[in-house]
Amino acid sequence: MVREYVALYRKWRPQTFAEVVGQEHILRTLQNALRRGTTSHAYIFAGPRGTGKTTVARILAKAVNCERGPREEPCNECTTCSRIAAGASLDVIEIDAASNRGIDESRELRENVKYSPTDCRKKVYIIDEVHMLTTEAFNALLKTLEDPPEHVLFILATTEPHRIPATISSRCQCFYFHRLPVKAIAGRLKDIAADVGVTGPDEAYLLLARAADGSLRDALSLLDQAVSYGRGELTLAGVRELVGFKRLEIAERALSLCRGGDIGQALAVLAEAYDEGHDPRHLALGLLECLRDALVHTVGAPGGDSHGLGVTDTATLLRALDMVAEVEGRMRWSDQPRILLDVVCLRLAALFGSGLMSPDAEERAPAMEDGEDEDRPESGGGTWEDVAREIAQDSPSLGAILSRCVAEEKDQTLLLRVPSGLQGLIERKRQSLEEAYHRVTGRRVRLRIEARDDEPARPERAEAAESPQGTVERVVDLFGGTIIED
Questions:
Q1: For the stretch 451-484, what's the b/e string if a residue is b when 16 or more beta carbons lie within 10 angstroms of its beta carbon?
Q2: Same domain, 202 and 189
Q3: Rounded distance, CA 352 to CA 347, Å?
Q4: Percent of the chain at pLDDT exceeding 70
Q5: Residue 363 belongs to some domain of the structure
Q6: Does 150 lie in the same domain as 80?
Q7: 174, CA 20 to 30 Å: which among 114, 372, 394, 448?
Q8: Sign of CA dihedral 459, 462, 464, 468
Q9: DSSP 3-state assignment of 448?
Q10: What's the pTM?
Q11: Would you give the DSSP letter of residue 72?
């Protein structure tokens, strides 16, 4: 008879507080309460998926009901502990609020809590995804929490604590489970793999832990898959293929090519990835991860990686992140996600090219001649028109005004002649304009603003200016719009 295989995350679910990874702040508080006999009647366990909420709830249920307790650790030997661990206890009730979210179920629960436990010291209700309850169901639950029987313990688990009404949370002790550190997950994976007779390189465990995004349960599921993929062996190549690390490599290549201005080759890389079966949205997520790493690297925080982007300023990376995040969100509802991905790469190339050199351009740049502007960084070479175009990406109306300005730079002063009547508006934008000019051209200047008197006269507007319609037409002309007739 073939023995049924048990998934690693089920087989290695912690049975004691000591086996729980990474939630010491919660375990210490609960164990102190158990030692002193001051456990609450209701708890909220909040945090990301796979961080131990339900596991700790079950261990707490055993600890308060252990025949040798209540105690800081369940004995896992008595009949009560064994029944709870096997899911066979009538007094530990687990409810999925996503499936039982109505008022009828909550009323039934309110009636059942009146009855004393059958075998245990306390009747424990573990309500998973409690935020899914309806408003009426929450109101019914509230009446129970306001005046609970002494023999009942509620543990409400949720990934979205902000959706729990304040009237409920104020009557519970709230614990927030953290995402587990990568090294802690990797260490646990290595221990479990060794116990089942599997060995692998440390890099493989770290990569699995990183892909799990703080969830030990997800990490164990990935370990299960990786071992099956390797036919009983754990290899770095297999893990990289399994967790989509190739996605990051593709994103890094595409970004590097966009950064260097080779948009044709960047699109070819994405097309090849698409033909291999990579989802465009997953590739967009890869772009986001690479840009995030590059931003962390740029600001000097630990855990960053330039991903071949070379010297890139923070403002550009933030704008690139906004671009890709906006497109990634649209991809969820689009029938043509591949087109959106290609378009965002074109926009990234334009962004990087507006004020930045390709990574190897510094090596090709000639040495600065004597008397040349020494404040010009590696980006250099931009013009006032480039500045106006960049600003227009965020503010089309301001960009339209700036395109009608005449700029003249001399002795670290930028003389800006603006259309008559708009000096006040430009003055209010002085600091941001000076920063934008430095970002695009690489030169620091002090802005001087004067009215522009050399604009050609527009007689056709003179007569119109006498009426409100003329004012509208001038605004349309100024901001580059059109009038739509009813």
A1: eeeeeeeeeeeeebeeeeeeeebeeeeeeeeeee
A2: yes
A3: 9
A4: 85
A5: no
A6: yes
A7: 114
A8: positive
A9: strand
A10: 0.61
A11: S
